[in-house]
Amino acid sequence: MESGYARSSDSHPVLTDRLGRPLRDLRISVIDQCNFRCRYCMPRDLFSEGHPFLAPQQLLSFPEIEAVVRAAVGLGVRKLKITGGEPLLRAGLDQLIKRLTQVPGVEDVGLITNGSQLTVAAERLRAAGLHRISVSLDSLKPQTFSWITDRVGDPGKILDGIEAAKDAGLAPLKVNMVVQRGINSAEAVDMAAHFRATDVIVRFIEYMDVGTRHRYQSGLLVPSREIRDAIHAHWPIEPIGSNYFGEVADRYRYLDGAGEIGFISSMTQPFCGSCTRLRLAADGKLYSCLFASHGRDLRPILRRDASSHKKNDPLRLLSPEVSRRLEEALVGFWTARDDRYSEGRQEQQEGTGQPHEKVEMYHMGG
Ligand code: SAM
Ligand code: SF4
Ligand code: SF4
Asked: Ligand 1 atom 2: the closest Cα is on which residue?
């Protein structure tokens, strides 16, 4: 299949990669730091308190992020998702959200968070124009929650944050649960029970071999179909269609009308064929796949000839020259893309005998 650039009949730009997949979504990591140490993401023995995370000057500034978003929107991006690390640790995040929701062409701005700061931040995020929020919550039991996040924590606080987000009008709200065998797998039905008939959509995520530092253990993977069958045995469910092309979750509804749940099965039912997502890491590197080994650094374009007092000048960052260079970089990057790591996982691992080098998820943003 040919990659390329065209306009659809409604004048929507369509930039396609080498497998014919259009560019639609941009995931923006705003920080690589986190206040949790989830064992499947940032194991504490490798990410101690003194870990050298990105320094403030290495992070893209808000005007720099906006410049990349404007270029991406010009090429067809319509949905943005703010992530990290823990995005709510980035100071002034609501200011970024305000900027991004005002970019013409942006239809949807979402945020994914561990929920620990939500009781304080929910109102501010909504006032800034945020459309949607996903909260990661793997257990309702204090002991299991603390074990997974490797800190003394209280899932009750995350539930309070979810309520605060609902009260602020951030709907539909999603709760993401990464299911690990023998750790929280027995709780999947309880999680479904907790959020049935509440308008909160729980999505069960398969534990993945992202990055290399968390030392993936295949025995912890629980195929989504096991969880689906367990829930179906309690409350019958049926599949419903996707909301849009490229949606990652398989959606189901309870037959008794108690709402919706979803399954994200990247390990057992990969969806590379409809992957429309580009990722921008907090240091300005672009990645075209969650399992990428290398990125394309945009900072040389964003910071070219910028004296320190001009660094964030919108006149410079949104000038035709910088916009053209960003657009060229994005087009070149997306049209060269042929990633399908999850579909070819087996071959990749067996083919070379070499471990596949992978950028960490907390760095590029999940
Ligand atoms: N800190 C925020 C949070 O936890 O929601 C945003 C960033 S986090 C990297 C994004 C998502 O990646 C979370 O839902 C997290 O559970 C998920 N994640 C991280 N490591 C994972 C793994 N090894 N397998 C599956 N999901 C993972
Ligand atoms: Fe932090 Fe999210 Fe990674 Fe957990 S999954 S360590 S909350 S970035
Ligand atoms: Fe997209 Fe890469 Fe995941 Fe496949 S493995 S769905 S290409 S991010």
From this structure: 113
